[in-house]
Structures are given as structure tokens and as C-alpha cells.
């Protein structure tokens, strides 16, 4: 590629096209592509790379704790999880209806994996997603309130197509946490979708927030158009840790006890030599 063409592509911000242009020129020459076919190929290259970069930017902006995918989830470990519901959520149809989602279940049963995997899939479909733990939410608002930036941080929570709030119920929250959560839920209600996870029964939310009326108001709005997915069973992490510990304690081949018969020491002399000594 000559320098003039390279410079022009950079100015037009066609870096994706520039990356594959040499290869496409050889392909066009070798296969006798028409001008239209060649143009279609290089424009597809540009669109593909732009799409990949957009996904990368949205994944970074989502602030996932970990990047998870549904294909890595161990469905056989916990059969209480409704796989068809999870995959339906990953299509994004609930976002179009502005419905909310609540995943309930004990710690370690896969809730965080599932919501982050759903969020990642929705980003690939073109939606904007923000992931925050409940502790991130409280910390964001307490910090920005002190800095007189409440509306700025609230706008960050109101903008995404899907807001994911993870880990509700891990411990009691600081004072005023209920007010922050209520404002988020109220202002997103029927305009944007929110997905939350909790490991505590809904009747305990008042204790966790230290404000029963606010907790009631939050649940009243959040559960109005919500899909509730209840997960039961034991912790995946604790189960795998126990298996690893048992494997580590298992004896190796060299450590196993010998079970064969014991070897006895052969006599040093013959019977004739013993008789000869007896007669002397």
C-alpha cells in the first residue's frame, strides 16, 4: 500500500479496511473479483473491526467483575436453574418490555456468573450494560454526594439499557443506602431494565437496608414487572474446593501400602551339616 493511500485511510478513520486491504487486493487479483465484489469485501472488513472495537469498549464500560460466558457455566451441577429462562433473557427481549429480573439463591450457586454472562451477551447484541455490586452502588453515591456530584453519578446509573446490581444481602448496608437504591429503581421503573441478585429472602431487605418502608417501596416497584429466578442447592465453589482437597489428600501410587506376602529369611545351612554337628 502506498503512503498516500495509507494516509487517506487514516484520515477517513478506515483503519479496519487498511488492515486487510493488501490481503483483499491479492484475493481480488487471484480470483478475478469485480469492482463491486472487492468493494463489498473491504467494507465488510471495516464494519467487522468497528463492531469488535465497539464491543470491547462497551465491555470495558460495563465494569464486569469477571468476563463470563454462558457456554462455560456448569449446568449439570445445579439442576434447579431453568436454562431456558436464562437463554431467553440473553436474547434481550425483556429489555424491550422494560422488565426487571431478580435472581434469588444461596451464595455460590452461580448467580453472579449468570448475570455477567447475560450482560456480556446483551452487549454483543448492541445493548449498553453497567455492572455494579451493591457495595459499589453505595460507595459511588456516598463519595459523589460528598463531592456534590449526585446527579452525575445518577445519570451513569440511569443511562444503560440494563443495570446489573449484584450481591444484595451479603451484609447490612450503611445508612441512607435504601434511599440511593430506591431512587435508582424508581427512576428506571418502566423506562429501563434492572437485574439484581440476592442471597436473602425478600422479607429481610428491610433489615439489610435499615429502613423497612423504603425496602417495601423498592420491592413494590422492582417486582411490578419482574422475572424472578429462584436458585437452590449447594455452593459450587465450596463443592469444588472439597473435591480438590480430597484429591490432594489421596495417596499416590508410591505411597500405597504393600499388600503382598512377607519374605522369610532362608536357612544358612543344609540338613546334613546340622546332623554332622550333632554327632561330633
Automatic annotation (TrEMBL):
Report if keyword Amino-acid biosynthesis is assigned: no
- The biased composition feature labelled Polar residues covers 255-267
Where in the sequence does UniProt note compositional bias of the Acidic residues kind? 271-280
Kindly give the CDD domains that the UniProt entry links to this protein.
AAA
Task: Kindly state which keywords UniProt assigns to this record, in alphabetical order.
Answer: ATP-binding, Nucleotide-binding
Gene Ontology biological-process annotations: DNA replication
The Swiss-Prot or TrEMBL record annotates one GO molecular function as:
ATP binding
| Protein name, per record | DNA replication protein DnaC
Upper lineage ranks?
Answer: Bacteria, Pseudomonadati, Planctomycetota, Planctomycetia, Pirellulales
Amino acid at each position: 500500500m502506498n503512503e498516500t493511500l495509507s494516509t487517506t485511510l487514516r484520515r477517513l478513520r478506515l483503519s479496519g479496511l487498511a488492515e486487510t486491504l493488501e490481503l483483499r487486493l491479492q484475493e481480488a487479483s487471484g480470483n478475478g473479483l469485480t469492482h463491486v465484489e472487492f468493494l463489498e469485501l473491504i467494507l465488510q472488513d471495516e464494519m467487522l473491526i468497528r463492531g469488535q472495537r465497539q464491543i470491547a469498549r462497551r465491555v470495558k464500560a460495563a465494569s464486569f467483575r469477571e468476563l463470563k460466558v454462558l457456554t462455560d457455566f456448569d449446568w449439570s451441577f445445579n439442576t434447579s436453574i431453568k436454562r431456558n429462562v436464562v437463554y431467553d433473557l440473553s436474547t434481550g427481549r425483556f429489555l424491550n418490555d422494560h422488565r426487571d429480573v431478580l435472581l434469588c439463591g444461596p451464595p455460590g450457586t452461580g448467580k453472579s456468573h449468570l448475570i455477567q454472562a447475560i450482560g456480556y451477551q446483551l452487549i454483543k447484541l448492541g445493548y449498553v450494560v453497567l455492572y455494579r455490586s451493591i457495595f459499589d452502588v453505595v460507595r459511588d453515591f456516598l463519595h459523589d454526594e460528598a463531592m456534590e456530584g449526585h446527579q452525575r453519578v445518577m445519570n451513569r446509573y440511569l443511562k444503560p439499557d440494563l443495570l446489573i446490581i449484584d450481591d444484595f444481602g451479603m451484609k447490612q448496608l450503611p445508612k441512607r443506602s435504601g434511599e440511593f437504591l430506591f431512587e435508582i429503581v424508581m427512576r428506571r421503573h418502566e423506562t429501563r431494565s434492572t437485574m439484581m441478585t440476592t442471597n436473602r429472602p425478600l422479607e429481610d431487605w428491610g433489615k439489610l437496608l435499615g429502613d423497612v418502608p423504603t425496602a417495601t417501596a423498592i420491592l413494590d416497584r422492582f417486582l411490578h414487572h419482574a422475572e424472578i429466578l429462584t436458585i437452590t442447592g449447594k455452593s459450587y465453589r465450596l463443592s469444588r474446593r472439597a473435591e480438590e482437597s480430597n484429591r490432594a489428600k489421596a495417596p499416590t501410587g508410591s505411597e500405597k501400602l504393600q499388600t503382598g506376602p512377607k519374605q522369610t529369611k532362608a536357612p544358612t545351612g543344609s540338613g546334613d551339616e546340622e546332623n554332622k554337628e550333632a554327632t561330633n
